[in-house]
Amino acid sequence: MSSILTNSSALSALQTLNQTQQALQVTERQVSSGLAVATAADNASYWSIAAQLNSDSGVVTAANQALSQSQAVLSTAGSAIDAVTSTIAKIETALTQAIQPGADLGAIETSLVGYANTLVNSVTGASFNGLNVLDNSTLTAGGTTGTLNFVSGFNATSTGGTVNTITLTTQALINGGTVGSAGTTPTAGTTGTGILDGGTTGGTSLLNLGYAMANAVSGLTGAAATTAAATEANTLLSGVATVLNAVTSYAAQIGTTQDAMTASSTFNSALTTNYAEGVSALVDANMNTASTRLQALQTQEQLGIQSLSIANQNSQLILKLFG
Q1: What is the pLDDT of residue 67?
Q2: What is the DSSP letter of 144?
Q3: How far apart are CA 137 and CA 251, in angstroms?
Q4: Which pLDDT score, from 0 to 100, does residue 317 have?
Q5: What is the 3 state secondary structure string of 272-293?
Q6: Nearest-angstrom CA–CA distance, 173 and 238
Q7: What is the pLDDT of residue 322?
Q8: pLDDT score of 10
Q9: How far, CA to CA in Å, does 265 sit from each of 55, 63, 141, 309?
Q10: Which residues of the chain have pLDDT under 50?
Q11: What is the CA radius of gyration of the chain?
């Protein structure tokens, strides 16, 4: 039946055209944004999972940035320890020279004082962004060690997650000690509780070696001074070896921590890549499929418009029946 009030063909064509245009809008949005799931309305489950993964990825990225800073702190400390061990080697050389008869003891004592100041400068200068793991700034109040927990990663769980850390037990190379002086009236420095300024080197510290040598030969001349210097130098050399061993042991702890940081950084980088790939699989549009579907829908839209036009012309044909 033909009706001038209700054009069933036109209504059907219009409904099909509306459906095509809605699908076309979705496809055009996918092509322009590259996302098949841009909002929760597109796919609530996938969108929620992707949002959580993006959040976790952000935390892991922040952890890697923190690791970079932490590695810089320990690299700075490592460079300072290299300078310290180099200076200790020079101290050992000077003490060995003091054993030799005829050695210029005054020059050796002055050198030892200079090396002590170099040790202090190396330790106090080992600061990166205000953090120094070689002085006493990280020690527990009243203690000889401290604890630093460096952020290393993120352990994501279904209920949130926890931050992973790498722990370094810190020690002080210098903790309260001061440099002693040499010369004709040597003055003792203060003995501290650090590795370098502790009283482990023949009863004194590396900061006090110049004073110790000068004090040992004070008032002596000739063979007596030579014998006293040799005896004191041998005693101090034994202690220096002990200190060097303690320094290298702490350096090994720092190196082990750096290795752990490098491993964590590598893992975090791989993890963020996995997160990105996972999110992509959930929400990214398949551009090959989307572009093909776009062309098909555009063709359907054109045909729908033509169908609607033809359906609308049917009402005009009714007028010919009354001609």
Answers
A1: 96
A2: S
A3: 17
A4: 67
A5: HHHHHHHHHHHHECCHHHHHHH
A6: 18
A7: 65
A8: 72
A9: 18, 8, 32, 64
A10: none
A11: 40
C-alpha 86: how far from its chain's center? 28
Distance CA 150, CA 131 (A): 12
Asked whether 140 and 146 are in contact (CB, 8 A), the reply is: yes
Q: What is the DSSP string of 228-286?
A: HHHHHHHHHHHHHHHHHHHHHHHHHHHHHHHHHHHHHHHHHHHHHHHHHHHHHHHHB--
Tell me the C-alpha distance between 321 and 163, whole Å.
Answer: 83
Quote the pLDDT of residue 245: 96
Q: 167: which residues sit within 8 A by CB, 6+ positions away?
A: 147, 148, 149, 150
Q: Which amino acid is at 244?
A: L
Q: Which of 163, 130, 168, 128 is nearest to 149 (CA)?
A: 168
Instruction: Identify the pLDDT of residue 315.
Output: 66
Burial of residue 232 (number of CB atoms within 10 Å: 0-12, 13-18, 19+):
buried
**How far are the Cα atoms of 76, 107, 152, 257, 276 from residue 270, in angstroms, in the given order?**
27, 57, 14, 20, 10
For the record, the structure tokens of 225 come out as: 């001074």
Q: Answer yes or no: pTM beyond 0.85.
A: no
Q: In which region does residue 160 sit, left (phi positive, over 0), alpha (psi from -120 to 50) or beta (all else)?
A: left
Backbone φ and ψ of 284, nearest 5°: -75, 145
* pLDDT value of position 4: 59
Model pLDDT, residue 287:
73
Contact 194, 174 (CB under 8 A): yes
CA gap 34, 290 in Å, rounded: 9
Q: How many residues does the chain have?
A: 323
Report which secondary-structure segment, H or E, holds 107. helix 105-124
Six-digit token string for 230:
């040799």
